[in-house]
Specification:
By secondary structure, the chain is mostly helical. The protein has ten helices and no strands.
Length: 197
């Protein structure tokens, strides 16, 4: 058994061999250093209360009153500056709200309802006719879950049709598609009515 321990010690790095060979002395030295650090180091590092107040002196009652008065005036000035800042913010907010309220209803509704998902410049390249915008608004409600109240649809469509009109080719394509859909629907109704007879 002793032989296997020495072969293990030979394979270890030199520092570990040193520690294992001199384990009792090393432990005694480490314990002494730890004991010194725990007991003596805090005593050496402590400061007396006078060192915390280096350079400080006691104020006379008159000086203390002046200092308190100065601090109170500074606190009042800071409170006044805070009130002025809040008043300016309130004025700016009211001005922004008034500017927003002065815009047409369609613009506000497009920003409030469509602007949730689409950026402001989204509609610039997407011109449509009034019919196309109606279909788009209804599709957004039905398929995409847009929250548009029934009374808001018409102002939204009117604004979009006026501000983002369709090109002539797009107008022709939309009306042709609408005619095809209407013809297909009429054909289905005729077919259904013939079958009922």
């Amino acid at each position: 058994m002793r032989r296997s321990q020495t072969s293990c010690v030979r394979r270890l790095p030199s520092f570990r061999r040193f520690v294992l060979a001199s384990a009792p002395a090393f432990r005694l030295l480490a314990s002494g250093a730890l004991l010194f650090l725990c007991l003596c180091a805090p005593v050496l590092a402590e400061m007396c209360a006078g060192e915390y107040q280096a350079g400080a002196r006691r104020l006379s009652p008159a000086e203390r009153a002046r200092e308190l008065q100065r601090l109170e005036q500074e606190r009042q000035r800071e409170a006044e500056r805070e009130r002025e800042r809040l008043a300016q913010e309130a004025q700016a907010r009211q001005a922004r709200e008034a500017a927003l309220a002065a815009r047409p209803l369609g613009v506000r509704l497009v920003e409030a309802r469509c602007g949730v998902c689409h950026p402001a410049d989204y509609f610039a390249s997407r011109g449509r006719t009034t019919l196309g915008w109606w279909v788009t608004v209804l599709r957004m409600e039905a398929l995409n879950g847009a929250r548009i109240e029934p009374g808001e649809r018409a102002p939204i469509v009117d604004h979009l049709a006026r501000s983002h009109p369709a090109t002539p080719a797009r107008q022709a394509a939309e009306w042709l598609l609408a005619a095809l859909v209407a013809a297909g629907f009429a054909g289905l109704v005729l077919r259904w009515s013939r079958r009922r007879r």
